[in-house]
Amino acid sequence: MRTPLVRWSVLSVSLALALTSCAKGTGGASAPTPTAGQFNPGATYSGTISAMGFGATDEIGSTRVDLAKKSLGGADVKLVEGDLDIQQFLSSVAAGDPPDLIYANRDQIGTFASRGAITPLTACVQGEQIDTSMYNKDALSQVTFGGEVWAIPEFNQVQITMANADLLKDAGLSIEDVNGSSWDKITAAAKKMLKAPGGKLQVIGYDSKLPEFLPLWAKSLGADLLSADGKTAQLNSPQVVKALEFAVSIYDAQGGFAKVKALRDSADFFGKGNQYAKNALGAMPMEQWYVNVLNDVSPKAPLAFDTFRTPEGKPLAYSSGSSWAIPKGAKNPGAACRFAKTMTLVDTWKAAAQARLDKRKADDKPFTGILTGNVKADAEIEQMLTSGGEPWDSGVKAFYEANKNTFSLPANPADKEFKDAWQGAVNRVLNGQDKPQAALDKAQQDAQKALDEAWAGWTKRTN
Amino acid sequence: MSPSRTRAPRRRTTRFIETRAALLFISPWIIGFLVFTAWPVINSAYLSLTDYDVINDPSYVGFDNYVQLFEDPKVGLALWNTFVFAVLSVPAHLVVALGLALLLNGASKATGFFRTAFFLPKMTPPVAIGILLLLLFNGQDGLINAFLGVFGIDGPAWTTDPNWVKPALVLMNLWTVGSSVVIILAALRGVPQELYDSALVDGAGWWKRTLRITVPMISPTLFFLFIVDSINALQSFTEAYTAFFGAGNTTYSNDAALFYAIYLFQQAFEFLHMGYASALAWLLFIVIMAITGVQFVVTRRFVHYEGGNP
Predict the structure, then answer these.
(1) Which of A51, A105, A458, B296 is the most buried (most CB within 10 A)?
(2) Can you identify the CATH homologous superfamily of domain A159-318+413-456?
């Protein structure tokens, strides 16, 4: 019987099926790759470009945005603040309505490039005559994929050793005991500075900062987690296993990771009640920006700094940071390229550094520097530093030295899976669910499988 | 022509007009359902048969994604974690909600205030609850362990020990028990007073009255909450994700908190395996349907409907 209800139902299902048939991606090659002719240093731009994932929340950001905006010759810039929302970004690309620029972590670039979510910047670099030699080589290699540059490096991050000078002194130790040059000394120092009356941990002697710093511990033994071409995982090499065993043993010597993490989590990391100000942490490797945080919130904290060092005593740091990329289908790639270029020029960084210096001077505080992905800018900014006395001058000196001794992981199309594999392995060991060798063996399998599939996808798309 | 023959077409015409009017009135919902529910559901069934990364066109891979479900050890782990969480959290949620509702029902003053007070935590955004979990259950300085310390109990490492992560999540889930309290309270107010009066005359105490009158009389409500809470538990995501995979811990994670919806989200939006994630979603749908079906069959004889069982 063909009742109206049946007819309506048939119509509804037909409509749903019709809509379903429209569902598809944008197609890997539907948007033309920009040509060098689109990028002209003399061109001026109008309208508005949008940049997703960046907020000009301080003078370093706002000064550079003002200069970059000015360089467009009339076009306005709309900033979509907050960390880059990958889901939102990819959906916008798939829908054909992407922002003109994204501000992403450099380790995300390989994945975006391999999937065709961003455009190569070869034409942009040539057209706008960007001198790529000014960029930090590690930063540039992180955004170079398939022989092309896909993003412009911006900030840089490196690690140094940060310690509580009072706790070191009380234990009869010095910064050399905890800077990584002797792992035996680190273990001994951790035990000496540890305070756990009645089994309740009050002072962490040494925090090896797992899981995030495994690449640093492994590299200090000469091991890379990933081959230079980004195709082969090397997670279960003997050096990586040894590095993990050591870094975990530091926690075990202090009552286990659970206790250390609980105390770490209870600290006011960015405030006056931080672990150093409260004498709750002996030492740890940490990214350089934390020197500025500590100087700002607890200038009287008893600190000691040095670079993180290999067992041979050589400074070492893992370079990571941010970058600018142009999404596929961006409506104004010319203006986007100009904006990214201007944001990272030496003069722009210097102007931003001057603004920071002026502000710090007005607050009667030292200018402790910033690390960028531009080595020429870093050299110029280093000359602008003002002394904050000890220990801050040592801290600043340490991170500039670390910045000259960096390594990084190469761009690859499965960064998230790769990172999840090794971090998952470290976490399973920390949670007591696995032994280092077994955990890393499994991670090796998972990471290699993900890499193989992702590289196969890239090959298929580009052939 | 007989009168019955003339009435029949008229009845059909009236019915057609009424049906058309009804469909027109509900057409905004129908359109919304088709576009925002039916289409994504059908589309996800199609995507589950493809390799799709959001940016590039989906490519048909047959049942490869479903085969992969059975080879992926994390699917089993995530299903197990979710199942254990549901088994612990649903009864805990119901028992606490029933207990609080009984207390509130017995209160003679300020019931409105207490009802609001119990409901208020439900207004907390789930992300904030995830962060709150890390603070309350911190093994070192958390309030929970401080409370246990009063009784000389050395509390566990709730947020790192894989054996205690799920119990912490179950306890934290009680934070949102307020909505169930309000629903049960409404059901309690509907239990006829004469039943209690008769029981009192027969000498029944509070416990017996609760067990023999209250619970059977509100059993349809309890059954409704049982089903809804079970479905919610099986789809649990935000609190665990925030605490162990997202803002609360950017690098540290704990396999014990890897719920099925979290793994699905990771595959879809972190690894961009949208086709595989769609297959995961369909498996979850089938699992929830199966569990709900079993719940309906098994609990049927425990539910009392005043108008008789449907």
Answers:
(1) A51
(2) Periplasmic binding protein-like II (3.40.190.10)
